[in-house]
Structures
1.
Amino acid sequence: MTSNERDLESMHATATRIFLNSLDACRIESAFDRHIQFEDGVLRRPLAAGDGEAPPRDLRLKDYRQIFVVAIGKAAVPMLDTLLLRMERRGGVRGICCSPAIPEKRNWRIRYFAGGHPLPNEDSFAAARATLALLRKANTDTLVIFLISGGGSALFDLPLDPAITVNDAIVFHQALIGCGAPITEVNSIRKYFSAVKGGRLALAAPAATKLSVLLPDVPLRSLDTLASGPTSPNSTTLAEVQELIARYALADKFPPTVRSFFERGALADSNPTKGKSSPFLPLMPWGERGHATETVNSKQEETAFRNSVFEVLLSSHDLVENARIAAERAGYFAVVDNSCDDWDYADAARYLLQRFAAEQAAHPRCCLISGGEVTVVLNRTPGAGGRNQQFVLACALELAKTPEEMLVVFSAGSDGIDGNTRAAGAMADPTTVQRALAFGYDPEDALARFDACPLLTALGDSVVTGPTGHNLRDLRLFIAEPH
């Protein structure tokens, strides 16, 4: 092994260490202690610096006859376990937990469901039905704590139209995933498809006090799209959703039942507050004749959200900031650039490589950090891969043009899962393409077929963490050493 090869191997290890250290610093337990505290029978939400004037942030648990907990998303289990461990009063607590897998250790007060991701399954529907049934029991002396994290859009779903089957919903979600739209636009469409998104969980318990604890995998400016906004007011209009479906040519990719659902006029006509600028559709799925089986009025709508408070537990900003701290501790000049969030992966690769080259010219030992997610348009049946591995392989093809550089690119998902693979992401350097060709792989063909995982795995350049219980979007790192 040459000295350059040893240096590149060391840089691979450093990039991995920065990623793992930043993940470890975003512990749900410590975030709860900062944002959600239980003292003397009171749930307290300490004011953050800069909050200024704010509504009361304390909830006296003794004021509530019953407490419901609904945990949804990839981090549902650790969020739920952390909450229940810290609650002083557990009598009267009931709840639902919908996560990718049912944990071995379970609380008897909670019903657990293993929803599907990235595509829904039967448990996704069952969890949604069970939650709506639970929330219908809520009243003015009920406190509902929602624990919402990324992945909830697929893990937890129920179509408004009962004619839409689980298989139809799977095809619908597949079309959205591969269309190349940013997650905020994808989830805006999902809001109008689902009986448990776009604020409908809040509307299911209008009189109850509701606290939503959020672990977002979306930009903070778009918190209402986290898990497609089950408890958040829906700011998206039907006209905007129809425009998105047309822009990304989605209608022909939807199964007939879903296409009919979005095309027929009943969607707009069934809005109980039509003409009052309300973004809400019926609360419950449609009946046999296409009419809502249960609706909400504007007064219920106003009450439902007046009784709602929200708390952001952690976000992509925490992940990026902890990566910056870890990089500086490792002796790098750290630069953060999140401007390519929701960009096409190829455009993001070119931009970040150019930005890094400019930074490296001034700071030879440099680390460029980028948070958020890139997008991939699937125009064919994909191979094994995900957006992070696709991004890394695109970077590898660019780096092959300057084989003398001492540069490593790292990209991984904070949830430990990239696309349809078991890898969280991957790494590349200027030798990646040469090594792949020596192993009999064609990097350009793998990129075109969205099949980056086999190549990167064969080179030992995959990043495998297993499910992390997090979902704080992706982290990209570019690190370089002086020649």
2.
Amino acid sequence: MIEKAEKVVNLLIERKEQIATMESCTGGGLANMITNIPGASEILLYSAVTYSNEYKIKMGVSKETIDKFTVYSMETAIDMAKAISEFAHSNYGVGITGKLKRSDPNNITENDDLVYFAIYDKKNDCCYTDSLYVTKEKRFQNKDMVIEKILDTLKEILESKNLKG
């Protein structure tokens, strides 16, 4: 996975672009992976771990989105990605929310093993979205699964933009 993080960091450096993250269930794992790469300080502007609804809202996620779709939804991931990009003035924002095989009595949803993520591209005002079911027994393994999927997606986005010029 470190090679994927290295590729993402190097592509962002090459493009002179920055990224910011708002993570929930991954607990800052994506930001940690990025900061394991030399030069990360050039591209990672800000990272927030927002486990609670209260702090998601304080960071700019719409309370109405959470109330209507739940905190564990693609709509919330999109709000997170946009809010963190705006807060940090970064080219890209990543929002991650979901559950890693554990129920949340404060936020009841159908799936306890589904994670949503969104990558906001400020320049093009669009979001790349995806979700995945976590399948591992250990929490850290599920976090790694999510982080690796996001790094793959970021790499694809950045490489496709390099091909376009």
3.
Amino acid sequence: MEIASGITLSALSQQILVGLSRTTILFIVSSGLSLVLGVLRIPNVAHGSLYMIGAFLSYTIATSVGGGSYGFWLALILAPLGVALISLVVERGLFCHLYEREHLMLLLFTFSLMLLFKDLVKLVWGSDYRSFSAPDILQGSFSILGLPFPRYNLFLLIVGPLVAIGLWLLTNKTKIGKISRAAAVDREMVGAVGINVSLVFAFVFIIGCSLAGLGGALVAPTQNINQGMDHTIIMEAFLIVIIGGLGNIWGALLGALIFGLTDAIGILVWPQFAIIFPYLAVVTVLMFRPKGLLRATW
């Protein structure tokens, strides 16, 4: 059944499923950026570099144990933890002394961190592209409504909602999450009641950065791992956070859905210029909702 010239309903459905799986990566990375931006008020330009480091770490971990199923699952656990450790060193060593500085100062500082991480990645892993495969259980495809769909994409569709639910539980049902939300609104008042705001900020920063590492670990089996992968993701993540609402986790999910689906549909409708479809969607949203689709925490 054709719904437009050369486009069938089955092809559209399949492309939407592919777009939803890409939405998972975009949401995981953007939610970490949104969390840090909403609570710490830090526009962390180096967030994309941590995503890249997560991908390279997952490659190193997976290949060092011989690849296969064990290597992949071990990398999926240890790569975000490795990024979390890096972020802990950066936050305790540097960021904790800069929270009272102007946003422009923080922006320039994270930009310098991005350049530093880029050189460190080149020093450790070199300039060559790296890649490794998903475990056998996640390779191949199966049929959904008569359409072939990669198993790994289905895995991503499962991980995305789990991360969203986990973030919701963390921010709404735990003491540290509630304190973080309060600090996002009025950090001076939180400090006035005797809570160590600096430690709260450290916790939020580490969680946000580890989500970037998780996104890198998840995307690693699907594409070549290279030094330029941080540039595209950070630009997309910032746009998603802006259209969703600054600091709003559910806004990040909504923005990722818009970005991922318009990109997937653009590939189907006009592949030569598919890259412009998500940005047209961003412009359209901001024309009617300049502050984002959902309430910003700023």
